[in-house]
Design a protein that fits this description.
The chain is an all-beta fold and 125 residues long. It has no helices and 11 strands.
């Protein structure tokens, strides 16, 4: 079973930056689409960003486009989420996820097969 572990969350001020990391145990890491989702207390889990198995396609939610950058390191089997110009509305638990099915939507949490434990990001005013 694929195991995902997130790290890098913390408490920052508005305008600051954080980089989240997600280490994957998958032997065939390159075959997975990797995604980042977030969930605030009492809210639905929402899509943040994703990158395909090939690394050639990248997707962002409108709310983070231009501020966040997703990338992956194929040597370290790690996916990153660089978050710049953070806003209080970015406060949430951030989850790393992985999926294999190319026919499913990259933006839907239901499409992903494996999930990390989450890492808390808190942005103060």
């Amino acid at each position: 079973q694929v195991q995902l572990v997130e790290s890098g969350g913390g408490l920052v001020q508005a305008g600051d930056s954080l980089r989240l990391s997600c280490g994957a145990s998958a032997r065939t890491f390159r075959l997975y689409t990797m995604g980042w989702f977030r969930q605030a207390p009492g809210k639905e889990r929402e899509f943040v960003a994703a990158t395909t198995w090939s690394g050639g396609l990248i997707f962002y939610a409108d709310s983070v486009k231009g501020r966040f950058t997703i990338s992956r390191d194929y040597v370290k089997n790690t996916v990153y989420l660089q978050m710049n110009t953070l806003k209080p509305e970015d406060t949430a638990v951030y989850y790393c996820a992985a999926k294999r099915d190319y026919s499913t939507s990259y933006y839907s949490s239901d499409s992903y097969d494996y999930w990390g434990q989450g890492t808390q990001v808190t942005v103060s005013s």
